[in-house]
Amino acid sequence: MRRLYTLIFISTGLVCFNQNPAQGQSYADIARIMSQQEIHGTARIQGIGGTKTALGGDISSISGNPAGLGFYNSSEFSISPGYLLINNTSSYLGSSLKDDHSDFYLANAGAVFHKSRSTQRSGGFKGGSFGIGTSRIANFQNNISYQGLNTVEDFIDYAVEDANNQGLDAYDNPELLPELSFLAFQTTLTDRFFDVVAPGDTTFFYDRNIYDIFDPNQVAFPSDEFPTLQQEVITTNGGHYQTNFSYGANFADRLYIGASVGINTIRLDQQRIYRESPTEADLTEFTLIDDRLLEGTGINGTLGIILRPVNVFTLGVSYTSPTFYEMRDESYLSMSADFETGSIISQEVFFLPLRYNLRTPGRLNGGVAFFLDKLGFITADVEWVDYGSVKLTSDEVDFTDSNQEVSSYGSVLNYRVGAELRIKVLRLRAGYSFQEDPLKGANSLNRSRQSITAGLGLRFKKIYIDASYVRSNYNNSFSPYPGASTALIDNTSENAVLTLGFKF
Predict the structure, then answer these.
(1) How many domains does the chain contain in total?
(2) Cα-Cα-Cα-Cα dihedral of 50, 55, 60, 61, to 10°?
(3) Which end of the chain is less congested by CB atoms within 10 angstroms, N or C?
């Protein structure tokens, strides 16, 4: 996969072809991330683990099962601000580091407009409700740091090997090197050398250009005695929002049918700052900065149905079609090297924006709810998602390799259970959610997400107030450059949401 980018240097300008930023996540990884959702909706729904397929009468039905809008018998408006706290513990090369990030955000907002039939009958169509709302279905806000001492191979070793793998053409024309090894050459971390083996037999190669500070003739390598300190800070901003226009109808208080159109917006702004500091070398430190901005807009549709054969039991099913996105990817790389002599060499790489299409998988949900008269209810959902159906296409690049990588992703079953206890105007809630790892433990890492939820609420005639707390735990990993050791990240997020609702 190749695409045009522009290299802008301090001293010279150059235009050439190459791969996308090698330090960042692959397009297959991005497609998976854009396909995943978290517990979302109003505080009431989040307090019961995100279960909503078989429930009605909540504004979360707008973005969940639109058939739930058929339960309304009045109009309603609600707004749900949220607060998110993320704590990360990283492990890299035997070292551990903690970091955190907090964020205020809008979790959900929406309005439902109810209209009943003018003539009520015991059976048949009884009316319906139209809803419009927006919900943050995934959070990208995060701050991750990790560091460790590398005693085996460092980034310069990678750059040397990568450069030599490109052949003699790249020796004669360094601008043909992949961007990371090219930046290493331009900042003099590596250089071109030759060795005359015999008359007429000369070997040309790239090698380290960093020397022992005490012996300029000796190339410095990382070792137990002279390790290289490796550090990276990853700062991510943005989120995934979905705005829905939904309608749900009521037939004889037994059958509820709904449909929805969803408009999705994605923004992921990530900066990765990687540093290496060798021991006892003429290089003090080098820094690699990788900035990436992903933006996209997509559309999907949802159909849902809820059956209530008896008053104490409901059964719901909903299907959300694949979401079709138009994506824009813009990247920037820069590298600077600071030497003992005080000289600093900096180079930059700007990538022209890439536009491509992304299709994320559909989602099939089934749910049941048991109502304990006026005491409350117990409900459960199961969701099926086939991540292997993700597809990337573009007129600018060939995504064959990325789509082949995506095809290895598996389908998953996600589970959610929740309960609500009613004591006069007070509501007490609890829930649990499990989201399976679509990579099925690839690289010996379990990326599944488990969440424990709790909530409470107060219900009055025209006003209600709900609060929820969601604690989630999940793992992910990062590598600072291709072939490097992997940093394992243990993420714990705590999410509090407050919903204020008004009936009219």
Answers:
(1) 1
(2) 130
(3) C
Phi and psi torsions of 213, nearest 5°: -65, -25
How is 410-469 classified by DSSP, letter by letter? -EEEEEEEEEEEEETTEEEEEEEEEE--TTTTGGG----EEEEEEEEEEE-SSEEEEEEE
Would 186 be classed as within a structural domain?
Answer: no
Q: Say whether pLDDT at 8 is over 90.
A: no
| Domain assignment present for 168 | no
| 470-473: long-range contacts, CB 8 A cutoff, minimum separation 24 | 470/39, 470/46, 470/494, 470/495, 470/496, 470/497, 471/495, 472/38, 472/39, 472/433, 473/449
In a domain, 310, yes or no: yes
Amino acid at 17: F
CATH code of the domain containing 313: 2.40.160.60
Q: Tens digits of per-residue pLDDT, 255-309?
A: 999 999 999 999 999 999 999 999 999 999 999 999 999 999 999 999 999 999 9
Q: Which domain holds residue 43?
A: 3-154+222-503
pTM of the predicted structure, to 2 decimals: 0.90
